[in-house]
Every structure is written in structure tokens, then in C-alpha cells.
Amino acid sequence: xxxxxxxxxxxxxxxxxxxxxxxxxxxxxxxxxxxxxxxxxxxxxxxxxxxxxxxxxxxxxxxxxxxxxxxxxxxxxxxxxxxxxxxxxxxxxxxxxxxxxxxxxxxxxxxxxxxxxxxxxxxxxxxxxxxxxxxxxxxxxxxxxxxxxxxxxxxxxxxxxxxxxxxxxxxxxxxxxxxxxxxxxxxxxxxxxxxxxxxxxxxxxxxxxxxxxxxxxxxxxxxxxxxxxxxxxxxxxxxxxxxxxxxxxxxxxxxxxxxxxxxxxxxxxxxxxxxxxxxxxxxxxxxxxxxxxxxxxxxxxxxxxxxxxx
Length: 310
Fold this sequence. Notes:
Number of domains: 2
Radius of gyration: 23 Å
Number of strands: 2
Strand order of the largest sheet: 1-2
Order of helices and strands: HEEHHHHHHHHHHH
Distance between the termini: 64 Å
């Protein structure tokens, strides 16, 4: 169809190119959106705003105004679900943070400042992924890295050297991914798959400490200390969301039908929220495992294994 470009086409050159292009979608500061309508179609977009040609309508016009951009929170367009899923997710985790501290952490035995730190590292990562509207890539990386900190901390709770090694490694990998995906070239639509592969690689790097913990403790003990059921569920949700986002399913099969609801980007956001929630529950389980029983790092590892395998 005329309104939808080929999926193989993408913006060439610098992603900043075309930001000064004049197009009917760009409104002067003194122009009312009601004069042209609040939304426009793919064909009306300036080049720098074009990303997914299977989303045909419902685009917000480039208003060049923060005030007008904020107004878009109150009317329907093809980013409404993305914005509100981020916003409500951020609000939810802001509320969860103090509740977790007073209702959950306070009820556990011998919780130290390091336990609080890794718990809130995850919460901060979840909030960052919802707050950095114009830095989605940073938010995704912060979320992935922040998710690893508590898993590594509790997975190697009695092995401080391994904690330091794995937390340092995931931090370096996260920083390296930031350097890669934040380069202007990689922000172009044709590099969507490259970005997705980098995010997946960063996430799958978490298999290394998980496998190490299973070898060290045995599967049964590792499953409880790292809340592996929750970790695997979280990982599956993130991978599913990333694959849907990368392949632009379902809109690629029916362009224009999923402009405002159930587009791939929206499904990806929902998967992230589900993954965050599942992982948070897993972190609480891991914390409770080490602090709500008779476990202590003074107990020999073989004895701990026996306690949870017999």
C-alpha cells in the first residue's frame, strides 16, 4: 500500500539529518494543533521521526514545544500506551520501594545495608527504564544491569569475591553496551536488530553466574537462593518482548490495524513491566531465603546443601 514503505527501507545518514526539514507535521509555536489535527499519518512525518512504516496513523505532530508535548498525555495517539505504561510503571515502583522497606525488609532477620542497596538497585533500574523517555536505550540497559545485582548478590551470598567479580563484569558489559547503542549510527532504524542483539547478549550474559551457582550449590539450593523460577520467568518475558519488538509483530502483517493498540512496541513495554514485577518478587524470595530461616554463612556449604536436598 502507498502509505507504507518497504520494511527494508530506512533513514540514511546521520539520524539528526532532517530535523530541520519543513513538513506539514511540524507546527510553528503559534499554530494550534486543532488547525491541522492533533495527529498525522506516516506520510506527514519529517524524515527524522520515521521508524516503523507499519504504524500508519496516530503520530503526534512535531510541535517544537514541551508544553504541547505534555498535552499529548491527554489525547489518544500511537504512543499513548507506551507513555502511560512507562509512567504508571514508574509510579508503581516508587510506591513499592517504601512499602518493601517497611513491610517486607523490616520483617526479616539480620538485613544489612548491602541487602537494601541491591534491592533498591533493582528498583532504581526499573524506575530508570520508565523515566528516561528520550533515552530508552539507557533505560533498558540500566534495567538489565540493575536486575543482575540482586541475583548475583544473593546467588553468591557467602562468596564476596564472586559477588565482586560478577557485579563488576556485568557493570563493564553494561557500560560497553551503552557506548555501542548510543552511537548516532546505531540509532537508525536499520540497526534495530543490532540493538536488539546487543540487549539480548547483555541479558543472556546472566546465564554465566546462574550456571556457576548451580555448579557450586546444586540446582535445588541454587533455585532457592537465586529464585531461579522467577529469574527464568523474567528472562523469558524480556526475550519474548524483545523478539516481538525486533520483528514488529503483529503490525508488519497488517499495517495500520495496530496503530494505537497492541503494536509491537506496546507489547514490549507490557512484557518489561511483567518481567520487572516477577523479578521483584524473586528478589524478595531470595532475601527471605537467607534472612528468614536458620541459614548463616558460618554453616559449611555441604551442610547447607544437605539441608535443602534431603
